[in-house]
């Protein structure tokens, strides 16, 4: 199986939906943020101590490792920023989880597990600005786009499988 890569902004549901898709397809799953935490420790601490650019290098290295595995990959929301990553993703099965920015903000604010250095301490207007600065990249890199705003993970996962078939 060729890797299936889920992209989308923070709060789009990449982790949850990757779990559902992997369950249906009975395949491996790579959660890039989880692997990065194993490698570099807390992402927010790493941003504080080493900066975002250093984080992006680890992220790119991991993407290149994961992309050839037969798995569903939940990326981090900023994976689309690096040109090198865009090249890696260009001819792959990339699925954009498209979500309304107000819904994203609600999910980010209600997520007590993840402290996100690019969102948690930002004003809603700054989060929206970041979203709109990335939107075109998500859209450009996607082979398939699936709306996630007011839908449950199972429904979204089933649509992904149908669209891939
Ligand atoms: C980031 C998104 C996060 C994580 C890091 C940076 C971003 O992943 O990789 O905090 O810049 O969008 P999620 O999209 O899983 O929250």
TrEMBL record:
Membrane-crossing segments per the record: none
Protein name as annotated: Shikimate kinase
Pfam families per UniProt: SKI (PF01202)
Enzyme class: transferase
Subcellular location: Cytoplasm
Enzyme Commission number, as recorded: 2.7.1.71
Gene: aroK
Domain of life of the native organism: Bacteria
Catalytic reactions of this protein: shikimate + ATP = 3-phosphoshikimate + ADP + H(+)
GO molecular-function term, one example from the UniProt record: kinase activity
Cofactor binding comment, as recorded: Binds 1 Mg(2+) ion per subunit.
InterPro entries, per database record: Shikimate/glucono_kinase, Shikimate_kinase/TSH1, Shikimate_kinase_CS
Names of required cofactors: Mg(2+)
Record family assignment: Belongs to the shikimate kinase family.
Broad class of where this protein is predominantly found: cytoplasm
Residues annotated for substrate binding in this entry: 33, 56, 77, 134
């Amino acid at each position: 199986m060729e890797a299936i890569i889920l992209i989308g902004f923070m709060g789009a549901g990449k982790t949850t939906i990757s779990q559902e898709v992997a369950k249906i397809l009975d395949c491996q799953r790579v959660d890039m943020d989880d692997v990065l935490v194993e490698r570099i420790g807390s992402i927010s601490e790493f941003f504080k101590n080493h900066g975002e650019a250093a984080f992006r290098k680890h992220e790119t290295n991991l993407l290149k490792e994961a992309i050839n595995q037969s798995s569903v990959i939940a990326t981090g929301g900023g994976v689309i920023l690096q040109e090198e990553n865009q090249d890696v993703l260009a001819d792959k099965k990339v699925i954009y989880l498209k979500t309304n920015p107000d819904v994203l903000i609600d999910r980010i604010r209600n997520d007590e597990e993840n402290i996100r250095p690019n969102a948690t301490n930002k004003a809603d207007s700054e989060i929206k600005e970041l979203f709109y600065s990335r939107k075109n990249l998500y859209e450009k890199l996607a082979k398939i786009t699936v709306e996630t705003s007011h839908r449950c993970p199972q429904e979204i996962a089933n649509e992904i499988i149908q669209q891939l078939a």
